[in-house]
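User: Hi! Is it possible to get a structure for several chains at once, not just one? Here's what I have:
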Amino acid sequence: MALLKVDGLDKRFGGLMALSGVSLAVEKGEIRGLIGPNGSGKTTFFNVVSGIYGSDGGRVEFKDEEITRSPAHQVNRLGMARTFQEIQLFYDQTVLENAMVGCHRLSRAGVLAAFLRPRWVREEEAMIRAKAEESLAFVGLAGAGGELARKIPYGHQRLLEIARGLAGDPELILLDEPAAGMNQAETRELMAHIAKIRERGVTVLLVEHNMKLVMDICERVTVLNHGQVIAEGSPAEIQSNEQVIEAYLGKARG
Amino acid sequence: MELVTVAQLGFSGLTIGCVYSLVGLGFALTLRATELINFAQGEMVMLGAFLGLTMLSSFHLPFLAVFVLAVILTGFFGILMERFMLRPILEHKSPLLNLLIATLGISIALQAVAIILWGREPVPYPEVFGNEPLVLWGVRLQALNLWILGLGLATMAGLHLFFQRTMTGISWRAASLDPATAALYGVNRRRNVALTFGISAALGGGAGVLIAPLFFASFGLGHAVLVKAFAAAALGGFGVVGTMFGGLALGVIETLAAGLISSEYKNVIMYAILLAILMFFFRPKTPAGRSITEGSKVVAGQAVDLFGPSSPGWFKAAAWLVGILVWLLIPALTGIYAMRILNLALIFGVAVLGLQLIVGYTGQFSFGHAAFYGIGAYTSALLAVHFHLPFYLTMPLAAVAAGLAGWVVAPLLRLSGHFLAIGTLATGEIIFLLMINWKWLTKGAYGLYGIPFPRLGGYELADDAAYYFLVSVVLAGVYFLLRRLTRSRFGRALVAVRENELASLVSGVRANSQKIKAFVVGTGCAGLAGALYAHYVSYINPESFQFMISVEMVTMVVIGGLGSMPGGLIGALVVILLPEYLRALADYRLVVYGGLLIVFMMFLPGGLADLGRRPGRWLEARLRPSAAGKGGAGGPA
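Assistant: Yes, the chains can be modeled jointly so their relative placement is included. Here is the combined structure:
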């Protein structure tokens, strides 16, 4: 049974069809790549699936529940985390606090609980801290917990965004160009992390321009062009697919 | 209703609407060029009005010359204001809130200067035109109104041509769409911004000369047209032509509402229209990925907590002991007058801690906090006067009433940034106007007398010392609870919403509900403070809950330091106590006060709490070298 099932998704911006009839199913436990030339709708797809944009047609199911119209916070609470192409952190909070906010969906203390601070709240707070510290350690940021998010290096900020996503024990994580702006060494390290994420039992759907990264770690790859799925298959199949080559390089003459 | 009456009202409406358009255009231009809402725009109107008055009555210049000169002079002033007060802050990449506070500082200082130069009383304009109206189909068209309409429309037409036909106007429009690209094509951004402030001020000044013959020249003239002019700009989508029509439409609606419905409620209707416009057209569709208070707040994670778990036990015990001794001794060592001021400062402290939660932690502007403070004061006072309920019941009920009112207006929190600032301002004004107009309940502007002192356990807290203990205990309780709140899962999520709403949403935080809860708790604190105030001074009237008090509360938060609970307290003490110590300066006091706001925004955007941290950081560096090494690695804070 597919963990994420998207059926005929449409998204319009004015007269532009950013997504038209996109269908795709991500199985539990896979690492799926989503590629396509610039402007093909990959990020829009992430924004619609994660509930930031509404859709203009089609259906999104996550864990057999329809989430087409669910707002972003509800999608996260069901167990879908994501990162952004342009890093979005809580810059004036510490690295640890960033990860702790990521545990929001696992906890429930509200205003009254904060005032009274009964035992269960203190236990919950300890749980949040433990989870956050564990996910920071997972991406290798264990020592940086007390630093401000704005002060750590760019590569670490990308990792922190992943750690924040993982802190809430999601079942699916959407990574939007995680390797953007990273050098080769950092990219290699990132690939190792992504492989480990799957070992934690978290399914990964990633958008990436670094073809080596995609072809090396994804079992299956889906290709978007002009808002439509033009191919889907194993990395080897994709690399030899005529339509894909055409989308990236243009039509060969003669 | 006769058609002639409607036509007559419509004509007056167009006249006044013309003025709203001119002032509103100033808002629209600055907003489009700099993304800033200039609160000092109202004072340009005031400046124009007084300059015009002086030229008319002292130099007896003809009206047309007065208008042109006022436009030129205020325009020049606008350029100076931009160059020496706003540019240093604008180019510092300061957060929106700081700029807003700086323009408020300018507004306060200019009003104070006007009081010094021209006095507090509204001054009528000399009669320039005859009283004999032109009668057209039964509608009386006064010469003055025709002049206003003519000059106003001519100015707007000129402005429109300037933007459509001249190279400067066209490049201005290009820069307002995309400053970076325009700069690549040689548009000088600095000169463009200076030009914008010049034109906006000039429009305001011209509007001042036009409106003053109708409403007299007074230091409060700017405030009277500020919100309506902004509404005109919002109605017109902040475009040039749109704002022109927006202003005219609002003017007509206003006079028709006053003439046909009720003159007392005309402003309530106007503000309600503004709120409707904001809610319908200016709600952001996608959440912001950027913090509006970015850069200005004190950073919670970096706070040096001398009372934290790491400081030794004896130090904590000693600090507590000294603190309690000082607390007990203050009434014995302080004079009656100083005690009174101190009590008022502490009462404000309760309200300001609540505002700190809303503005400093959640990042939501609120310029209507005083209105909720007023709701608390009236609730507690009315319950005590009419139903003889004891204070220990009326005070919590006041908090509940204010919090409930906060919940009712909470949908406003879907607005963001400046639009939220204007929205809360309008809400505060509506509540203020209801306090004045619901005479059956509040006795209107006369106010409520004979509010009893609190009785606790058979003892009447009538003297200042006793009240001091009551207020400080309540304040300590609020402080303690809010500190717990900000250090919880809930508080972390609030800061997350402030820092990056988009990221908070995808982390499972329901941003809207967080904002609403923070707003309700914050306004509840204001209600609590209101109750304390009402039973302390025993007489309240709506004056104590007007817009300027809301501004003062925001000032306290900003000067104290955004995102810091101790900062909120320090801010309340400084802002209440400082003017008292400046009392020797008499009328110059508010000039200094406004000036201080600007200086603060220029040099100490993190507020006093940030300043207070510097010795703390130094001390920490000496006491705990290991921790200091870690903190220092991040570079200068």
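The interface with chain A takes residues 286-287, 289, 291, 294, 297, 299-302, 481, 484-485, 487-493, 495-496, 499-500, 502-511, 517, 521, 563, 630, 634-635 of chain B (CB under 8 Å). The longest strand of chain B covers residues 134-136.

User: Great, thank you!
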